[in-house]
Amino acid sequence: MSTVIEVDKLVARYGEHTVLKGIDLQVQSGEIMVIMGGSGSGKSTLLRHLLGLQVPHSGHVRLLGEDINAIPAQRLVDLRRKMGVAFQGGALFSSMSVGENVMLPLREHARLDESTMQIMMRLKLDIVNLAGCENLMPAQLSGGMIKRAAMARAIIMDPRLLFLDEPSAGLDPVVAASLDELILKLRDATGMSLVVVTHELESAFKIADRIAVLDHGDILVCGSVAEVRASSSERVQALLNRRIQPLELNPEEYLKRLTGGPVSGGAIA
Amino acid sequence: MRNAAETIGRNTLAGIAELGLAAVLLLESLGWIFTGARRRQPVRFSAVLVQCVDIGLRALPIVTVLSFAIGAMVAIQGIHTLSIFGAESQVTLGIALSITREFAPLITGILVAGRSGSALAARLGTMKINEEISALTVIGINPVRYLVAPSLLAMVLMVPLLTWYSDMVALLGAGIYVSLELGMSFTAYLGELRLYLDNHDILHGIGKSVLFGMLITLVGVVNGLGVTGGAEGVGRMTTRSVVHAISAIVITDMVFTFLMTR
């Protein structure tokens, strides 16, 4: 097995506030890596760095052996053709039909005739159970359909890396379960590697080969489902068992915050 | 006091950053327009055409109405003012120069800023908050090539064409009023126009309108990309784009006219 994604001491900051504190992460070829964590844990920021949408403060992100922040523009475009991304809200282009949305990467990157592209688009829509929806506009779709259409667009180029941001969030349990099945089926059929960002425990345990639990910008534990379940970390257990964590407060910082005085770094988490 | 200074400083920095962004976007767009095909990522003709229809063709009715009214207004005002000296018959010279050099480019620029500049800001703003711009980037489609360059090209083509059209309609509107009011035949009016108007005057107005087209696009794009905070943010930046674009047009017009009449 080869390493397809390599994150090396990744530090991300917004102004003074450090969001990721030196993340190390590897994803192997054909693996489903689930990144889990509560709100504000930095998982969305980590995903944006993996996609090259944000430049790290320090550290490296290597996809398929190439440093995404250091390669020339043309090589980056070539790399992006091997990646598929489905965003949390779908990010379908609202001025285009579902079919046009799914075909867009083909139109831009592949020199195929129209009917071939149409066939490929219908194939992918069929895979995500949206057969016959190609002429609908995104505004006419339900939440679950939008996520599946976004997935169809993400896999149209048969990518080697697929990134899914909260694929089952906000969906009813049946649709969410069918999406999990779809993710497993896709991996088994194509051997692609997946990075799935989610906070849905059930879904994570079902699909993951490995889980990385992110908390306050650190990876608490990274391992198989069994390893994560057996983790001795209190915060991991709190996340798994949905326990409310007692806030760690420094009395001095707390007073400053209440009185509106200048607050130093770390207090705003 | 410290807060006021801080606010001024912050706003100045933000303003300079926006100017810088506009300059970068302009250079990048020009880069894609001229070298995109060689980089196997051309600016699509179809996208430019769609923008041309939206910016140019769909604006024709309103440009017609306003240009006609402006033309008539200049004629009315001109005759009224010149009658003080009993020099009404000289009105054509004033009409010809003020319409082609100032009124037509200005009214066209302001109309396009209100119609298309705001639409551009709203479209990009909505795309940004829906992550559609991020989606383009990860698909490997440069958002500047795909969204900004076609708009810029269409704007730089359409605003001058609309200005030329506005010249014609406004001169027609003025001519109709002049011939009715002064009893001058329309043919005589056209003859005077030919006598007074130089290619240089028409080109002065058209040249300005190319600049206006660029300004409208860049202001719209910068404001659209600056959207934060959901639907309310889109509304705020759309309004801001119209105000900024019109201000930029009027100030640029003044500077351009000053430099060209030296």
Explain what you see:
The complex is a heterodimer of chains A (269) and B (262). Chain A has one domain: P-loop containing nucleotide triphosphate hydrolases (Rossmann fold, 3-Layer(aba) Sandwich), CATH 3.40.50. Helix content of chain A is 38%, strand content 24%. Chain A has helices spanning 43-50, 73-80, 98-109, 114-127, 143-155, 173-190, 201-207, 225-229, 234-240, 251-259, and strands spanning 3-14, 17-28, 32-36, 58-63, 66-67, 83-86, 161-165, 193-198, 210-215, 218-223. Chain B has 262 residues and is mainly alpha-helical. Chain B has one domain. Chain B is built from 9 helices and no strands. Chain A binds chain B through residues 48, 51-53, 74, 76-77, 80-81, 83, 85, 87-89, 91-94, 104-105, 108-109, 153, 163, and chain B through 39, 41, 126-127, 130-132, 134-135, 137-141.
Topology:
The complex is a heterodimer of chains A (269) and B (262).
Chain A: E1 3-14, E2 17-28, E3 32-36, H1 43-50, E4 58-63, E5 66-67, H2 73-80, E6 83-86, H3 98-109, H4 114-127, H5 143-155, E7 161-165, H6 173-190, E8 193-198, H7 201-207, E9 210-215, E10 218-223, H8 225-229, H9 234-240, H10 251-259
Parallel strand pairs in A: 3-8, 3-9, 6-7, 7-8
Antiparallel strand pairs in A: 1-2, 1-4, 4-5, 9-10
Helix pairs in contact in A: 3-4, 3-5, 4-5
Chain B: H1 2-35, H2 45-55, H3 60-82, H4 91-129, H5 132-139, H6 143-182, H7 186-196, H8 199-225, H9 230-260
